[in-house]
Amino acid sequence: MQKLVGNNRDCATYVRPTIDQRISRQWLRQHDKVLNLPWKANVKRSEKSNTIDVLVSGVLGSEISSEQWSQNFTEPVAPFTAEERRNWLTTMADVVVSSDAFFPFRDNIDCTKQFGVKYVVSPGGSTRDDEVIEACDEYDPKDLFSCMLVCRQWYSIINSKGKRVWKRAIPRILPKAALEDINLLQKFPDKMKLLRAFMFGWNPHDISNTMYVKPDGFTVYRKPIAQCTDAVRGKRGVTEGVHAFEFIWHSPFGTAAVVGFSTTHERLHCQGYESLLGHTDQSWGWNLVDKEVLHKNQYRPYPANNVHNTCFLQKPSVRITLILDCDRKMAGFEHEDEFLGIAFKNLPSAPLYPTIAAVYGHSEISMYYMGPAELG
Q: In sequence order, which ranges of the chain are alpha helices (DSSP H)?
């Protein structure tokens, strides 16, 4: 990723160009013609910078004569043609624009997007920060999260629950089926938390072939295929902090119904009916049918001594919450808001993804990221 915008203070003479000119010129400096200029041995660094600036700015012949400009080279150098400029500028991608002050107006962002800019970094502080962030959001939500990492002012704006930044992002990012689900909107009245839950939802590209993610993005469906066990992972893994993932099992369990978590190295399909999760060192699972937790193919009753009321096999829409404490390297489960105890300890530092495994045909399991868990 190339950082392109900065004050060119090493020039002997400096006229501040507009932001689009600065981006264009900085990118032209990466052209093979510039990188391989035939310099004479005695040309100083400041002279090289000025000479390159003349070449990329297109003022050769108007502000400086070709004869004077060519004195720095051992052989003739042709200036950029209009076609060369146009073709090279179209190759810009994943560009970062940074500023040591705020962007005063949103048109600054509109301008940068014409030149392949994907990330914007700024300390903020303008009275129009809200509009500038909204402009970033219209192009790519990655800009939002980049700003959150580096800027306290923008973090405060983005983190405000009622801000229009999130209200505008919701209809663009969430699928139509989710937006029309009244129960989902009631579950997440905070638009920021709704969008966050979707970002952590089931991954349609990390799933068994006999499953698919339903149009709402939060529920997975297992096809009625016999003699196999299938699994799906969430979109995002976690490595630090304490996180709560709520699973709602809408259908019967069958002979195995497992909630848990895994790394990306765990398989998502196997022949026969089994727990699938917990047979290797890459996954951890709780089989709701046998009431056992599994890891490295070792089984253990859970909850311990069955002191909690877990007679929920016949209840519809069973709600289980996974509490994943990456800081203390442990995990446990809740059933209907009752914590059942620690299930796993000594978890690895690798990214861990919420995962379920099912065997019952027509199974439907929803998963919602509820955010940082409340301990105590």
A: 19-28, 32-35, 45-57, 66-70, 82-89, 107-112, 129-139, 142-150, 152-158, 164-173, 176-179, 182-187, 191-199
233 and 296 fall within a common domain: yes
Structural domain harbouring 332: 201-372
Mean pLDDT of the chain: 82
The DSSP bridge partners found for residue 285 are 260, 294
How, if at all, do strands 330-335 and 269-271 pair? Answer: unpaired
Question: What are the angstrom distances between the C-alpha of 138 and each of 63, 124, 131, 152, 173?
Answer: 40, 18, 11, 21, 11
Q: How far apart are CA 19 and CA 105, in angstroms?
A: 13
CA angle 193, 195, 198 (to 5 degrees): 110
The whole-angstrom distance between residue 37's C-alpha and the CA centroid of its chain comes to 40
Grouping H, G, I as helix, E, B as strand and the rest as coil, residue 287 is strand
Whether residues 248 and 329 fall in one domain: yes
Tens-place pLDDT, residues 121-130: 776 667 777 7
pLDDT at 106 over 90: no
The count of domains in the chain is 3
Q: For the residues of 214-262, what is the DSSP string, one character each? A: -TTSSEEEE---SSEEEEEEES--B-SSEEEEEEEE-S--TT-EEEEEE
Distance CA 283, CA 338 (A): 24
Q: Is the pLDDT of residue 330 over 90?
A: yes
Whole-angstrom distance, CA of residue 134 vs CA of residue 163: 10
Report the candidate in 262, 228, 182 with the shortest Cα–Cα distance to residue 361. Answer: 228
